[in-house]
Amino acid sequence: MNWTLILIGFSLAVLMGAGVAALLAQMRPEWTQRKRGLVAASFLPGVTLVATMLALIWIWSLDDPGGGNMRDVAASMIATVGLGFSLLGFFGGLLGALLAQHRRTR
What does the buried/exposed string (b/e) look like for 40-64 if buried means 16 or more CB atoms within 10 Å of the residue's CB? Predict the structure, then answer.
């Protein structure tokens, strides 16, 4: 995997966290800043984990015509990458949400 892909994914997670935090500030003004930040930071990892689970279900439902054990390798790789990107998305979304809320309070 290329470092540029990880950097672009992190920057997109920051932007998405800032956008969801701004949207939540308009839709749910009664929520505290901490709650809005955590919900905004959890949105992208939730979507990533659902996509990872769907990919794992799809891989385990396929037939293994070659007789090799490649299904296990593919499932472990997809699970590792999905969990890594969900952690990256959570921290990026948290950073973006905090930056967006800091800008709104100034």
Answer: bbbbbbeebbeebeebbeebeeeee
Residue pair 101/22 in contact (Cβ under 8 Å)? The answer is no
Q: What digits encode the pLDDT tens for the residues 27-77?
A: 988 988 888 888 988 988 999 999 999 999 998 888 766 666 788 888 899
Decide if 59 contacts 71 (C-beta within 8 A).
Answer: yes
Those residues whose C-beta lies under 8 Å from the C-beta of residue 59, and which sit 6 or more positions away, are: 71, 74, 75, 78
Answering whether pTM is above 0.85, one says: no
Alpha-helix runs per DSSP H in the chain: 3-27, 33-61, 70-105
Angstrom distance (rounded) from CA 16 to CA 105: 19
Question: Which structure tokens are listed for 82?
Answer: 């999905």
